[in-house]
Amino acid sequence: MIEQWQAMAGDGREFEAWDEITRHAEDLPEGEVRTLIEELIEDLAGWPGRRPMPHRWWQRRCRGEWAPCFLLADHRVLYADLEMLAGNETCDPGAYEEFYGAAAMDEEGFFSSFNAVGAGPDLRWTALVSAAEGNSSSGGLELFDAQTGAWESDGVQENDHYIGWGEEVAFSPDGSLVAVAGRFDRQVIVWRVPGPERLWAAGPWPTGTEGAGYSHIGFSGDGKLIVAVSFAFPWEETAERQVVVADAQTGDVAFTTAAVAVGGAVLDHSGTRLALIGPDGEVPIYRLPDGEIVARHRTTLPSAGTLALSPQGDTAALGGDGGMELVGRFTGHVPAEGTCQAMTWSPDGPRGLFTSHEAATVIDRQGHALWTRRIEDPSGFLAAFTPGGRALVTAETYPAEISAWFLDRDMRK
């Protein structure tokens, strides 16, 4: 059958071939599914197309089920604009919707100048934050519910609690909270999902950041604290920025300091260690809540600007141009092509997302490529790891599509 599927894919029936493969695999035991995966990779040179999870599998997964056939899928399309796909002569929107179960876009549309994307660990919720668009919009937050296929945009920002020019968005490790950082208006807002219910807004905290706004937001590994870093223009990279650690449920400030920080700041699992990248590649480790610097490391990576902290807070992984580096209790250098756009700490250690002029790639601490994809415009590539780094979520505007790529395909409930 491999030869038959190969022939179908070769004459343009790739979608039809994949549909047949998924139906063939549904009753196979795990060992035979893994053998089929190896045969596809070997005989079809990595399979000429993507390997999407069908909607019928996704529905079972959302119910908490697991089946060996799920291992075949390398991604799930969470959202797609079928109206746009209808204009693509190579796509049958009816067949696409039956396979993916993706709902058509609402009247407000998907098109916007999005700055960041984030997703919860179970992939139900996806959040997008947008930039200001002249006099028509100050930017804001869009929430998509993959379980219902609905955008939860109305009422998310109301009562003068708007995110003006959203910079970054993050979900708590359990997926119950979503936090947004923005340049203007309320600057930091935290919602509870589902709902969405706004918990609190800082606009700004009384920490000397009045008017500055925030460019980074993140959670501790246990989800109890958030960390935010105030905004700095590119030509002010040596200026001090305010780093704020606050209670995720209330917004009460637990720690704040002024520091020259490149990019963001990260917390360990318990929120007792804070790390950032300072001048000349220095990586200070703060003990919280007293703020004492308990360790100083240094990276030699060019343009290091992304980092992740181990759950114990004793090792930092940094990403820059040409690779990632570990400093602290564990050390090492992993080369990679391109520039690091994001870092995360998974159960297997750090993972980094790198983009070059031709491709985007996720590597692990051994340098193994967990995922790679050709991209036409790196500047327009929007992606983020889910909490824990088991999946990578990408958002594309043309055609409008949000996809979750399984870095650990064996994502059992």
TrEMBL record:
Pfam (any one): WD40
InterPro entries tied to this protein: Quino_amine_DH_bsu, WD40/YVTN_repeat-like_dom_sf, WD40_rpt
Chain segments annotated as coiled-coil in the UniProt record: none
Signal sequence extent: none
Domain of life: Bacteria
Protein name in UniProt: WD40 repeat domain-containing protein
Record organism: Actinomadura vinacea
